[in-house]
Amino acid sequence: MATDPGSLINWSLLALDPPGWGGVLLGGLLNSIKIAVGGYALGLTLGTGGAFGKLYGGPVLKDLLEVYTTLVRAIPELVLILLLYYAGTDLLNQLMSAIGYGPVDISGLAAGIFVIGVVQGAYSTEVLRGAIKAVPAGQIEAARAFGMSPAQIMRRVTLPAMLPHAIPGLSNLWLIATKDTALLAVVGFSELTLVTRQAAGSTKAYLLFFCAAGALYLTLTLVSNVIIRIIEARARRGMVATA
Amino acid sequence: MMSEGSTIDAMALTELPNRQSFFKPHRIALMAIAAIMVFCVVWFMRWDWVPEYGGRLLSGVGVTLLMLFSTCILGFLFALPIGLVQVTGPWPLKMLAKGFCTIIRGTPLLLQLWLLYYGLGSLFPQFPAIRDSFLWPYLREAWPYGLAALTISFAAYEGEVMRGAFAGVPAGELEAARAYGMSRWKVFRRIWLPRAIHRALPTLNGETVLQLKSTPLVATITVIDVYAVISKIRQMTYLTYEPLLLLALIYLCLTAILVVGFRYLENKIPTRGA
How far is the C-alpha of A53 from the C-alpha of A63, rounded, in Å? Predict the structure, then answer.
């Protein structure tokens, strides 16, 4: 590789074409974003169900959800990711062989989305529960007085009314989801952090690659912040400005 | 950001489930099922390795706790000036502190850790001045990099909290202090700092639990904390689940101890209203 001996930093390592590693890094970033989006969506689904279950569910359901959120919030994400990654793939394989199919090869992407989703589910359960509790009880009672079914109340009143309260917390969770994808490097999924380490290891330009990956993560965060601000302004329209 | 505290609460366990009316009929049934599950786990899985590695596990827990408390204390000390200059500092310092917080909070901790350990760690040996200095024996080991990364991360997150705490001290209190003829430094030392720390205390519980949840990352740069000990056990015994379950239990207990300890401390500090 032609390098200029005078320069301290060999920028050609970041070139997009194969001698450089830029394309590999961008591929890793794409994988990270895919997992973050998938895990966040799964987490929101789990969180919505969990929040409604925790507030309106039966005693057994409430207790089980409490155990779920307590465990996830008390155990490090790294440990949860290892446990869910191995246990999840193992269980699925046993299930498949019990049904009569051979062992399936679970893609790292699906496993990663599952793992991040379960972790995010517990966090968003707590965020959404707080937001739902911020909806004035009178509004929900009024909806009930109109004869709406619980599903209708949820769709027409509770979810839209709680959204402005939930958005700051949910946007923080999105940022956490993008950063938590880095932990999947430990189980060997080739997202941005792991490919960065591979690139750095094979070229010995550690500082350059880690700084480049940091810049990519930071860009992701800053772009997300801009989009979040737009969404928040839209969700809060018509509300009295606080502070 | 208004929601900072609530997000921390959503992510970190800051209160234990309350004990009132604990023994309801359905709870007894649930606990019986849980007891059966625990019994199955103890009976059908292999736990004969625990006594053999008990000592190493204890020392691993010690390293984890040492990392946790040293980085929390150091990070909090750094967070004070970071929060303060964002409220009153001249604009270059303000921008610097703000940029620091944005960069650290916008990138994953694992990446920062690897940047310090592999990046700086590979850069240092190229400078003879560093290799000859008294610091070199420490810089060749892994733990200073783990300590630095965790401290920086805690300082950035807590600095954001401190900024809000400094800004939220009622202006009337500071004006009253100035009216008594206190100098700027005296106002800061007697009124502003204690009141800001008082306001920031409720978030410390959550931040500390979050920090505990970040400590296992240092195992990826060969610091032998409890996570690294468990990884070693998994390699040597070829067991997949048992060590991980024990690890989860250990972290669960550590979190519970932290939460109980913080509740004890919070009860010691007089508060009025919120």
Answer: 10
